[in-house]
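[job 4471] stage=fold_predict status=RUNNING
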Amino acid sequence: MKSSPKQPASPQNPALSTSHLDFPVVGIGASAGGLEAICTLFRQMPSDCGMAFVVVLHLSPDHQSVADRIIQDTTQMPVRQVTEPVPIERNHIYVISPANRLSTNDGYLRVTPANRRRGDHVAIDLFFRDLADVHKDHAFCVVLSGTGADGAVGLSRIKEQGGVTLAQTPDDAQYDSMPRAAIETGMVDLVLPAAEMPQKLLELWRNARQVRLPEIEDDTLPPALGTRVGDAQASEPMLEEILLQLRSNTGHDFQHYKRATVLRRIERRLHVTGQADLAAYLHYLEQHPAESRALLADMLIGVTNFFRDREAFEALERHVLPQLVCERDPAEGADEIRVWSAGCSTGEEAYSLAMLVCEQLALEQRSHKVQVFATDLDERAIGIARSGSYPEAIVTDVPPSRLRQFFVKEDQHYRVRKEVREKVLFARHNLLSDPPFSQIDLIVCRNLLIYLDREVQRDILQMFHFALRPGGYLFLGSSESADVANELFAPVDKRNRIFRALDASNTGRRSGRQLPGTSAAGRPQEALAKAKPGRKPSFADLHYRALARRMPPSLIVDIDGNILHMSEGVGRFLQVAGGEPSRSLLNLVLPPLRLALRSTLFQARQGTEAVTSRPVDLAETMGKLQVEITVQPYRDDLSGSDCLLVVFEERAPDPSLPMPGVIRQTDSMVLHNLERELQRTRLQLQETIEQSEVSSEELTASNEEMQAINEELRSASEELETSKEELQSINEELLTVNYELKNKVEETDKVNDYLSNLIACTEIATVFVDRNLHIRWFTPRATDLFNMLPVDTGRSLLDITHRLDYPALADDARAVAQGEAIIEREIGGQGDHWYLARLLPYRSSEQKIDGTVLTFIDISSSHAAEERVRLGEERLSKQLAETQSTSHMKDEFFAVMSHELKHPLNLIQLNAEILRRLPSLRNISAASKAVGTICDAVTSQARIIDDLLDVARIRTGKLKLKTGPVDLLALLQGIHDVVVSEQRPCPVRLELPADTLPVMIEGDVTRLEQIIWNLLNNALKFSPAGNEIRLVLSHDEDHARLQVIDHGVGLSHDSLEHIFDLFSQATPQQASHSREGLGIGLSLVRQLVEAHGGTVRAKSPGLGLGCTFEVTLPLCDTQLPQREQGSEPLSEGRLNGIRVLLVDDSVEVLAVMQELLEMESATVNAFSKPREALDAAAGEEYDIILSDIGMPVMDGHALIKALRGYVHLRHTPAIALTGYGASADQYKSRQSGFDRHLSKPVGYDELVEAIEALSGSVPY
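[job 4471] inference complete, writing structure tokens
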């Protein structure tokens, strides 16, 4: 029997209460691509449709939703996003808000924070459940485009509660997973494109208001949408005709269903088909045979879920399961727990029971066998249950721990684990006709009995009592009770409807129930009339009863003689014996008729014609009466089953036979003998019959054994079904693997093509050999080197001749195959060919070395090129050596020239300093002027020499900058102070930034001073006396800018282009000024500025209008380190008490320098020969050592090294005085042991300051 309509008396959520809204509420569920379908639906929906709409979408919890605004653009109905409790109003649209769960209760919509687990989408299912439980048949639902299966379970609940379900046509949906999952449940009433749904919803609502049905007298069902007219009695004939039509077309009889339930299911079909009343629907049913199946599906709706009514299942865990487990004693053979889930629908209830029993066994540490029988009338539901696959929505019913323990996640579904599935046996079973299971410990039949008549409820409870072991448990639905059979069951937990079977010794335990359609009096129709006194019979019943009065008593039996149906009056020929009830006609017929009936049944089974028995005298039981039995074989085309019609015809005795009193004596004796013989025959026959009955009992026992075997076969069939499913799954996997393999083959073909083209393009000769040097494969280019053909595969490489000069080929190949590293060699070939031979290990897929790969790359052209390069390198090396030699000679020349030029300048400079300090000449202005002129000339000539040397160093790349942070502002201020102190003929004005903050650049301070002095001296040289010269410093974020502005002779436009060229001077300058330079100063300026990463440019309005030289240098963030304050101003006697060792091979320089130092009160020991100075220093202490570098016999470097050998002179400061001023010369001086390097000509003040700094231990 089907479990359904499996509607709980109380909602799943006890807090829910039924809504009293008088208009339908349409729930719309959608996901990916659904918003477009929703907009299409509402564009066609009138704003005064009279319905309310609730849209549930899968929204991201991390983003704000604008779905309500998008929908509002398509309709005039108000659209609202639900963020707080709101009443449901007709002609309104409500949209779920992100990160929330939407629910409905008592006419309101409410939101609660969503509690999604593991990425499951169940928002639509949850809302559809609430919608169904609250609004009942006022609930409509629509499933639109989306991924996953959300909505399929909740949709089924809506149909169960009487609502109407719609789904979008998969071809019309952008994503068809959700609509397809809903359609596959078999619970969708209408499948339509989104654009056609508005009109269909309007039709459904209109049809619902036009329906006219009798008043339903059942408080357990909510008020219906349609109009109630008349009473149920008036509509009974029409209802009987509908049920008769349903039984004729489907073979299912719903006569025992409560009329309220039947009417409610028919009413739902009236809504869908658009019929107004029962008469119209009956006509529609007759005209549309497929509607019978649709009505049957509605009558058999069985919607359930895991652990439905959780409180009741918890009571089952507390009160029943521990007892079942503990009472099983394997020692007594009771090691199996047998559970029967009657009306299991799609299997959730059966699997819930299996899980609970498994948990209890684990808790008690028992290993009993568990067998759960799960039965239902609906083959479709049984098929779903057997698959054990359920949508994601079960996460709301199954706790996470059980979900992990008993289920496996597969895509959008959860599948019951194999160990649980094997404990459940599913079978189709009708509680009203099929025999029950036996020796059951627990029967679960929830929410089924409430839909059946009270008499049938008692019959089923009696059958359950028979099926249970003594003391077994019965678990009913929340609105059901065992009160109709309280002598059979005692309550264990009455609130949760758990009962226990009473022992047979106390209750007169029944073995079964009465036959369907019969009563104790044997007159089923009279009993039915008494049971239903207010029900008006239909015309079919009148016709049936009229025929029954005219026709002899009869009955229908199946091919085995079991009674299927009986007419009126046939009970006269039957009797019910004590013991277990039976449906066998041979067991129930009167004993005098049994032999004739058995013979007639046997003959009728052998053919197709009617068979009539001899008349049987029933004088002993029914007076003087004879009965003839006619059996007619009959095949029902509608059901496809074979049956037998058994007719009992009564006959009066023949009056022509003589009366017993008139029979003659002889005849009496004959008759007596015959009667005695007949009595013996009857006794023998009776004995045969008894033996037959014993055999029948044995056969019955065998039948029971066969039933047990049948159960085992069913289990085996279930296993075979599972194996079949596994094989199908394996087959699908094989198909998938085959498809993947096909793709791999195609990919391999492509890769092979790529490799072929690659090999052809690279033109590399390659040979693959195994560990024994047998050829495995080779490229086409390999045949240019080896005399191989394709048929040579497998031959030894040693047997193949080749064109290579490679005697070690075999040894190298073997060495690589043994695991050595890659071998590369350049080998020769025929002619001028050269090859790069590269031998690599051949590695298998297991990374094992299984041979050698030999590749030969033609490097003839590169080898020839390398040879040409080698020869070229030799020539270049030779030329480089010659160039370096020439450069070295040039450097030597520059050094000697510098020394030779600076030596006389140094002598002139020193003598001029002596003249300046002679007391007799201090007051003679002409003498002072002459000395100044001499000093200026010396300085100018020294600058020219230095500039020439710097230009040479720059051009040869030997000028090295000693960079560091330099404050350009301070540098300019220092130069300006010097210029002012010298009282030049042209005043120089310094213009600095207003903030006077340091202007830091990264550079060589000496070279920067050289740049500024060159530009400033150039301006002073070419400006008339009295004209002001401006030094302007500015900066921006990245660069410092220095401008030297004069009002001198200016430059022509042609001169500007070449002013920075070496040895270049403007023509006006050449004409109006003496040549005090060689035209190298500005060229040196540009090269030094560019070496610092800067730029320099010249601007002039024209001849006679002055010039502006602008230098731009990059700024830096480095701060200038703190420096100690300078010494006090120079004065006479600055070297008082300092002992000086002075060495110079020039006697003139030696004498002048000695005189100058002694003027400053120094004690000087002067030597022109280094050897003499070295010998003298052996016993003398000195505070400072001054030495020339370029001296004969022993130069200054050798001298200082020798002096450092004396312990007392090891740390004495030493100054090198030389005309060699290159950075390399300075570095060499420091390496030799000098502390400072001064280039000639040396200024007097510079020399004295150096001596003071070193003798005072000031670090250089």
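[job 4471] summary: Residues 960-1114 form a domain with the Heat Shock Protein 90 fold (CATH 3.30.565.10).
[job 4471] exit 0
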